[in-house]
Amino acid sequence: MRIYDTQAQRVVDLELRPGEEIKIYTCGITPYDAAHLGHAAVYVTFDVLARHLERHRQRARCVRNVTDVDDDILRKARELGTNYLDLAAMEIAQFDQDMTALGVRRPAVEPRATSAIAEILSLVQDLVDSGHAYEVDGWVYFSVASEPTFGSISHLDRDTMIALARERGGDPDDPRKHDPLDFVLWQPSLADEPAWESRFGPGRPGWHIECSALAMRELGPVVDIHGGGSDLIFPHHECEAAQSRAITGEPFVRHWVHVGMVRLDGVKMSKSLGNLVFVRELLKEVPAAVVRLALLSQHYRTSWDWTGGLLEEARERYGLWRAAGTGDGAVDEVDAALDNDLDTPGALEAIDRAARAGRGVSEAARMLGVEL
User: Can you tell me where the transmembrane regions are (predicted)?
Assistant: First the structure.
């Protein structure tokens, strides 16, 4: 199988070791609002990847975290006048319902950031002790100058990284930092925020350190495939890779895989902008398999615009496939398409051809997680 590796900046042969478990870590949701199509595109992609690996007798252990404590969820809980964990529980339940409807299988583990405070503090302490991090007034920062590989995931120049950090909550203007690109590992909590005791004072974790702690706890020091939306390449995955390598002394991830953004009217869907198409609303209009087919009609690496026309095309495709009945038409073609950098649009077209030729396509559809 070949897949695009973000760090290598090219399609590469996936490193598969026969008989060994493939370790996959996908960055999950911050549960303060409903799942939208951008989320669904990411998790459907990784679901198809895991299904394809398992079809070829590769055991896949999939881990997807939940960021249940960070600035966003605490701000939303404050606005609603509710406990942040109650808000998380409500949104996680809805998210799980939406993903199950879309045919996204549950990961082996869905660990929460709040479950790993001990591991997080241990990693932060190791980074301070080794000179990769420093403390200022209860804040602990990772020193990017201490890790020469910083920047090797995103391949961005310094000015671009600073601009993105400012846009995405990295606060490069923080006067406590030695370098604008240094990032928070631990921070003091505000009066109405949850706090855990530490040698640095009561506080809570920064964003990036949770994924290193959870991935290492659940999968070990090296992950085979790690990914999420392409908006996570910087700063999240860049920072995660740097701090993890500083801890273990070896590359944290063998293959970085990222999914393009879903746009609405040319603008990336995001909670902060409020320009969202929610999965739960689409499921009121069409069968879940139709939504999944609409997502699979776009190659995972591309960013694309959501339109109602895509849903209508998917509805027609679903009807065509169901009318074709059961059978193994297009199975080999779908297998070859998925081997070729998860070419789901090519796989759909192959199934369309088989269905129009009167061949049953239920087995090929199932390879994509679509039940007819």
Answer: none
Identify whether residues 132 and 168 lie together within a single domain: yes
Which of 326, 261, 341, 267 is CA-nearest to residue 14?
341
Question: How many whole angstroms separate alpha carbon 271 and alpha carbon 85?
Answer: 19
pLDDT digits (tens, 9 = 90+) for 262-320: 998 888 777 667 778 999 999 999 999 999 999 999 999 999 999 989 999 999 999 99
Does residue 278 form part of some domain? no
CATH, residue 80: 3.40.50.620
Please tell me whether residues 96 and 195 are part of one structural domain: yes
**Residue 364 near residue 330 (C-beta atoms within 8 A):** yes
